[in-house]
């Protein structure tokens, strides 16, 4: 592999990794901070991607979907949490897995009934349909846009969690929900907000990914598997770890798809296994 091809593959991997990062930090918040195992997270991603497809068909551009689809995913997550999932917070993780997995299957089958089983293509926005020349390399404009969006999301997330009163309450509720309640705050509302926000982030990832990979009913399962790999590899509850792990997975997958296309997906789990063998708590996780 020439140096130019290697760099091109690495740059493509950055774009893929940034989508994985946006997808995974929502799961990191729910899984790492709330101690809730959410197997429906991929369904939020899938529903948003299909909403992006429908909006692109209706308006002629996927750009409005970047605002509307995350909102729809947040509503889906909020309704699921209020109607069903809040009743499972004190149940064993096995029960949470079964219930959220059933919710994901329900969403998948509903999408299949509406849109069919065949995949759909989502056009890249007209304004991002070209390329950007970076030194001697050519990089798709839309992938650069995805990276920029992910950077903004990362900065906003860090400021919200580490520098705001709401972020402090969220971290406190995750550590000791009963104590937060004694201080006059409703931990249930904090968790409800975190769940909706996590759904919105998964929705944003789905809307961004739709023009790159298209949409199909099983995309939620693939997204869920990768999100859990990123969360575990980065370290439970670690946002910086999620960013590092997502970039590592994205670049690995992109490079391997050029060297060994059939094993590109397999190498995601190979990288995770090798790193966890030496760091069981993940790249940035704590014991």
TrEMBL record:
Alphabetically sorted, this entry's keywords are: Amino-acid transport, Cell membrane, Membrane, Transmembrane, Transmembrane helix, Transport
Where is this protein primarily located? membrane
Q: Which residue spans traverse the membrane? A: 6-31, 43-60, 66-85, 97-119, 139-161, 190-212, 224-251, 258-278
The molecular function terms in GO held by this entry are:
transmembrane transporter activity
Q: How does it sit in the membrane?
A: Multi-pass membrane protein
Entry annotated with the keyword Hydrolase: no
Localization, UniProt? Cell membrane
Which protein family is named in the record?
Belongs to the binding-protein-dependent transport system permease family. LivHM subfamily.
Any GO BP annotation: amino acid transport
Which GO cellular component does the record give, naming just one?
Answer: plasma membrane
Q: Name one Pfam family in it.
A: BPD_transp_2
What species is this protein from?
Answer: Bradyrhizobium nitroreducens
Superkingdom per UniProt: Bacteria
Please report the name of this protein according to its UniProt entry: ABC transporter permease
């Amino acid at each position: 592999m020439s140096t130019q091809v290697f760099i091109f593959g690495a740059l493509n991997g950055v774009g893929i990794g940034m989508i994985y990062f946006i997808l995974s930090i929502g799961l990191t918040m729910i899984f790492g901070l709330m101690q809730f195992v959410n197997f429906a997270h991929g369904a939020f991603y899938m529903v948003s991607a299909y909403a992006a497809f429908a909006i692109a068909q209706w308006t002629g551009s996927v750009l409005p979907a970047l605002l509307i689809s995350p909102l729809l995913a947040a509503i889906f997550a909020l309704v699921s949490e209020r109607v069903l999932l809040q009743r499972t917070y004190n149940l064993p993780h096995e029960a949470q897995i079964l219930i959220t997995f059933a919710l994901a299957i329900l969403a998948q089958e509903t999408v299949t009934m509406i849109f069919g089983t065949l995949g759909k293509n989502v056009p890249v926005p007209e304004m991002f349909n070209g390329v950007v020349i970076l030194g001697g390399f050519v990089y798709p404009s839309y992938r650069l846009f995805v990276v920029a969006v992910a950077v903004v999301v990362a900065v906003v997330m860090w400021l919200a969690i580490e520098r705001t009163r709401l972020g402090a309450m969220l971290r406190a509720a995750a550590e000791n929900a009963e104590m937060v309640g004694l201080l006059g705050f409703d931990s249930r509302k904090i968790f409800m907000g975190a769940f909706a926000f996590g759904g919105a982030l998964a929705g944003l990832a789905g809307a961004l990914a739709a023009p790159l990979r298209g949409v199909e009913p099983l995309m939620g399962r693939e997204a869920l598997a990768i999100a859990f790999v990123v969360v575990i590899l980065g370290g439970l509850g670690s946002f910086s770890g999620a960013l590092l792990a997502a970039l590592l997975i994205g670049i690995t997958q992109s490079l391997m798809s050029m060297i060994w296309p059939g094993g590109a997906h397999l190498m995601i789990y190979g990288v995770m296994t090798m790193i966890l063998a030496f760091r069981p708590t993940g790249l940035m996780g704590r014991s």
